[in-house]
Amino acid sequence: MRSKYLISGIVTFGIVLGAMLPSVLVAKFPKKPITIMVYVKPGGGIDRDSRKLAIIGERLTGHKFVVKNKPGAGGIVAMKYILSQPADGYTLFGTTKSPVYKTVSAKSDINLGDFEWLAMSMSDPEALITHREQAVNTWEQVVADAKALEKQGKRQIWVGPAAGGLDHVMAMKTWKAAGIKAKYIPFKGGKKAMIELLGKRGVVYVGNAQDILGQPKLKVAALSRSTRLSQFPDAPTFKELGVKGMDNEIMWRGFAIKKGIPADAREFYDDLFTKLMKDSEWIEYVSKKGVDPVYYKHDKFYKIVMNDKADVTRWLKNAGILK
């Protein structure tokens, strides 16, 4: 009788253990290195941000991240590649607001709802940048010069990247808010546009405050933020300058992934970005550039993305750029 109970107990234990083994033996996500795909060439802003995430992410999670570059068509090439991959969680998209704008200006068939917008991690205020050695370099001088040129039937020259992109729209918003007219000349990339300003072939460069780092001849003439940045204490805000409605024009940066990833992958990323936004190394890296570290995830981030899409659509249609 005793052996009968013993055998029964062993069988019962075996059944319970067998039921537990799959959850014990099957490792949680990830089981291999995670690829962070960026839409710019090595050295670009989101490329540097993604490489910093790879370093800190490995420290925080113990898992390896690999950054790969897939430039082309302002982010559309990278977005289509990511959407062609399995929704297994292993291909992260390092992105900014710019590819969202590009899907509109290029009339792309990409559905932004096919991405899960995991984490908006940076809010980088838009800025108007001028050359210190030019006669026109303060906001007041920019406005006065633009109005004087308009009376002569001419247009003040503004430079920046991408026709129909974020900085072009920022220029149009500024002109409307300030009651001036100017001409925006786009270049293939911010660096080339910056060279034009350094060569004094333009009056205003539209970008971000961090663009003047290492460029002592350049200054921020106006900043789109409610208060001044501590890293750029001499940069006045639009509000200070008396320009209304220009306090929150930003270039956001963040990370997305193909929609439909497994629950354990989503849990992994939520945990990663929650830890990242509290990490002192990350906060210092972001803040020293004059960028605000933020953490907006999932529904809130997606709402921001869709609002941006609607905003650029409206502005490009009003400008006759988008038919």
Structure write-up:
The chain has 323 residues and is an alpha/beta fold. It folds into 2 domains: 34-124 and 250-318, D-Maltodextrin-Binding Protein, domain 2 (3-Layer(aba) Sandwich), CATH 3.40.190; 125-223, D-Maltodextrin-Binding Protein, domain 2 (3-Layer(aba) Sandwich). Helix content is 42%, strand content 22%. The protein contains 10 helices and 10 strands. It has helices spanning 2-25, 45-61, 76-84, 97-105, 139-151, 166-178, 190-198, 263-276, 280-287, 298-318; strands at residues 34-38, 65-69, 91-96, 115-131, 156-161, 182-187, 204-208, 218-223, 250-258, 292-296. Strands 1, 2, 3, 4, 5, 6, 7, 8, 9 and 10 form a 10-stranded mixed β-sheet that branches. It is globular, with a radius of gyration of 25 Å. 39% of the residues are buried. InterPro entries: BUG (IPR005064), Bug_dom1 (IPR042100). This is Tripartite tricarboxylate transporter substrate binding protein. It comes from marine metagenome.
